[in-house]
Amino acid sequence: MIVFAPFTDDQVESLNGFQKSGNWHEFTCGENHAEDNTLIATKAGWVCPSCGYTQDWCHSFMCDWNWDSVRRTLLDERAENNSQTHQG
Ligand SMILES: [Zn+2]
After folding, report:
1. What is the rounded CA–CA span in Å between residue 61 and residue 78?
2. Stretch 33-45: mean pLDDT, rounded?
3. What is the pTM of this model?
4. What is the pLDDT of residues 7-37, one digit of tens each?
5. How far is the CA of 80 from the centre of ligand 1 (A)?
6. Distance (Å) from CA 26 to ligand 1 centroid
7. What is the rounded CA–CA span in Å between residue 39 and residue 30?
8. Which residues are near ligand 1, the ion (C-beta closer than 5 Å)?
């Protein structure tokens, strides 16, 4: 599902957490800047820190913390696999 701006405070927090989570490719500006082109979530929408490009939508799982529980599941599975490898 697609969610459009304006975003709530909580959604902005979730979106910026998603951007830094490193488990997925984050939203970036379409321009190939030498500078940082990772979009920053604001209540009015996404903004590129280098050129001012804006984007007004996101996927619902990005803004409702769903990505965080998926990430935790992935981390748990990874930890389990690791402990299995080290057994015996
Ligand atoms: Zn840009």
Report:
1. 21
2. 95
3. 0.84
4. 999 999 999 999 999 888 899 999 989 999 9
5. 40
6. 14
7. 10
8. 29, 31, 37, 48, 50-51, 53
